[in-house]
Amino acid sequence: MPSTAQENFTIDPMAFRQALGSFATGVTVVTAKSDSEESKNIYVGTTASSFNSVSLDPPLVLWSIDKRARSLPVYENAEYFAVNVLAADQVSLSNHFARQQDDKFAGIEFETGIGGAPLLKGCAARFQCRTCHVYEGGDHLIIVGEVLDFDTSGRKGLMFHSGRYVVSSFHPCNQDAREEADQSPAFVDDYLHYLVGKSFEHIMQKLKVVLREQGLDENEFRVLASLGGVSGCTLEELIHNSILSEDEVNEHLRHLETLGLLKREYTEEETRIHLSEAGEQRLEPMLKAAKSNEADALGVFTAEEARQLKTSLRKLIAWTV
């Protein structure tokens, strides 16, 4: 029998949560389609790390949802749901579905799965399920589903540990965890200029969508971003920070000034260029998108690899200056 001390043990909720965080999990977005005609939004999606396998025969999985969740009635009554296992470069997608908002699927690309459940693109794996059981689990409901179909992409999965996103890597004890031998790639596949340029284009793709929405191009964003968070810049500093020519910077400055996004401060010594209040407001969503985009791009690296990548790029920049 358990001792009296064990029976009277009081659980500290915060300490309990922190202890649970010691267990590394994957990150999923569970989606479903509402069958209610009164539902404001036809689709629901929520970020969940409580996904787990139950049985191989029959193929069963489970996940749990907080009873306070606004989407609880939909999941509780849905005949079908999908578990989208996020890839390491989908941090922004995880954050998006973790936030409360009126329409989580606005601007999100997805396919329609069994029973209408949304299937997100670019995931490490996707499981399409039929709800089998719904159990009480304290302040959560535990939902068990039979897997009707699934697909995998071979992409590295996003993970969560101790309250932070992490990426997985093989333990040194695994002898099979070796990279494939060099296959003598084509010249462009191993050429630094090409690799840097291609990486830049890949990283910029998502950000360009936001820039178009703001009615600005990439170079104008560079100018605004160079002025963000600083007490103004001289023309020379702006040319250096934006990596644009003097003619290009002057052209963009004239356009941005006509939009009311910049202002100039004249002194006897120099002229400094600042963001206006409107410029700061215009830049804010673009910087937010840029940071989110960076988090996705760095999701394929460990924290140390990401730090080393930036250090190496700074060395390369210093060499070329």
Keywords:
single chain; alpha+beta; Pnp Oxidase, Chain A; Arc Repressor Mutant, subunit A; 2 domains; seven-stranded antiparallel β-sheet; 10 helices; 25% strand; elongated; HTH_MarR-typ; riboflavin reductase (NADPH) activity
Give an overview of the whole structure.
- The chain has 321 residues and is of the alpha+beta class.
- The chain folds into two domains: 17-167, Electron Transport, Fmn-binding Protein, Chain A (Pnp Oxidase, Chain A, Roll), CATH 2.30.110; 187-320, Arc Repressor Mutant, subunit A, CATH 1.10.10.10.
- It has helices spanning 4-7, 13-20, 72-77, 91-98, 192-214, 218-227, 235-242, 246-258, 277-297, 303-320, and strands spanning 25-26, 28-33, 43-48, 52-55, 60-66, 80-85, 110-112, 118-120, 125-137, 140-152, 158-161, 164-167, 262-266, 271-275.
- The strands form four sheets. The chain has a seven-stranded antiparallel sheet. Strands 1-11-12 form a three-stranded antiparallel sheet, with no helix packed on it. Strands 7-8 form a two-stranded antiparallel ribbon.
- Strand 13 and strand 14 form a beta hairpin.
- Helix 5 packs across helix 9 (277-297).
- The radius of gyration is 25 Å and the shape is elongated.
- Residues 189-318 form the HTH marR-type domain.
- It is an enzyme of class 1 (oxidoreductase).
- It comes from Pseudoteredinibacter isoporae.
- It holds the Pfam family Flavin_Reduct.
Q: Brief overview, please?
A:
With 321 residues, the chain is of the alpha+beta class. The chain has ten helices and 14 strands. The strands form four sheets. Strands 3-2-6-9-10-5-4 form a seven-stranded antiparallel beta sheet. Strands 1-11-12 form a three-stranded antiparallel beta sheet, with no helix packed on it.
